[in-house]
Amino acid sequence: MGRKKEEEESEHEESDEEQASSDMDESGSGSEDDESESGSGSGTDSEEEELQGQVADVPFEVLQQARSSGQVTSFSRAKKELETKRANKNRPMEITSKKPVPRFREVIQAPKREVRDPRFESLCGKFDESRFKKSYSFIYDEELPAERQRLKKELAKGSGDTEEAKKRLEWIDRELREEQQRRKRAEAAAQHGSKEREAVKQGKKPFYPKKSEQKKEELVEKYQELKASGKLDKFMEKRRKKNSAKDHRFIPYRRPQV
Q1: Where would you find this protein in the cell (predicted)?
Q2: Domain locations in the chain as residue ranges
Q3: Cα→Cα distances 101→95, 105, 192, Å
Q4: CA 102 to each of CA 1, 57, 117, 206: distance values in angstroms, whole numbers, following the listed order
Q5: Mean pLDDT, to the nearest integer, of 40-53?
Q6: CB-based burial label for 66 (10 Å; 0-12, 13-18, 19+)
């Protein structure tokens, strides 16, 4: 009996020791997990701080555009540039295998052809409107009038496409009239500018007329020209018809009777 009791007590002691060791192992593994979690949390905090530092330098408008377009949700880190240095000058340069090889190999470096618009290039000089008009005045003085005479002869003979000839003739007449009006306005502006320069030399303040006043002066000149040529009545009749057609749009229609 005494021997059985001693065996039972020894078994109880061994089981207690095993349970204590298992408890110690569990507590050790828990501390390790806590340490790993704390380490990962510190890593994420550092990453967030780096991202915040990058976003702080970006303008607000760029951030708004990126968010509204939905293309960029967050600013990722800038990729490190690949180092292409050689350890020794006799060794070949190491190139990453991740970059795809181009289909066409550049054998000879040919000069790149650049297309330039002379209207927006400073190399072509500044645009001088008066010089440009003088250089291309032959279009309105020689070419268009000659084409007008040729089209009139073709229409008189009835040869060729009459519809296209009529449209082209109307376009030429319209262009010539508009060019004549442009030249008149430019001449009037030049005369006004010369008068104002002389007035400034005498000590007076310069006067810049409004567009409405310039339009009134143009209408007065046009009225005098039409009256002198005897075309005033015809012009006024056309203008009345045009105005009546415009006013007719605002007249209320009669409601349909149901």
Answers
A1: Nucleus, Nucleolus
A2: 127-215
A3: 11, 9, 68
A4: 92, 35, 32, 66
A5: 65
A6: middle
State the Cα–Cα distance between residues 183 and 189, nearest whole angstrom. Answer: 10
pTM: 0.45
Three-class HEC string of the chain: CHHHHHHHHHHHHHHHHHHHHHHHHHHHHHHHHHHHHHHHHHHHHHHHHHHHHHHHCCCHHHHHHHHHHCCCCCCCCCCCCCCCCCCCCCCCCCCCCCCCCCCCCCCCCCCCCCCCCCCCCHHHCCCCHHHHHHHCCHHHHHHHHHHHHHHHHHHHHCCCCHHHHHHHHHHHHHHHHHHHHHHHHHHHHHHHHHHHHHHHHCCCCCCCCCHHHHHHHHHHHHHHHHHHHCCHHHHHHHHHHHHHHHHHCCCCCCCCCC
Distance of alpha carbon 35 from alpha carbon 41, whole angstroms: 10
pLDDT band at 11 (very low <50, low <70, confident <90, very high): low
Show the tokens assigned to 44. 């994420």
Tokens coding 188: 């009037």
Question: Are residues 172 and 144 in contact, defined by beta-carbon separation less than 8 angstroms?
Answer: yes
Separation CA 214–CA 187 (nearest Å): 13
Do 61 and 75 touch, CB atoms closer than 8 A? no
Q: Which pLDDT score, from 0 to 100, does residue 44 have?
A: 60
Tell me what pLDDT residue 171 has: 94
Distance of CA 31 to the CA centre of its chain: 59
Give yes or no for a contact between 94 and 84, defined as CB atoms under 8 angstroms apart. yes
Mean predicted confidence (pLDDT) in 172-197: 88
Residue 1 has pLDDT above 50, yes or no: no
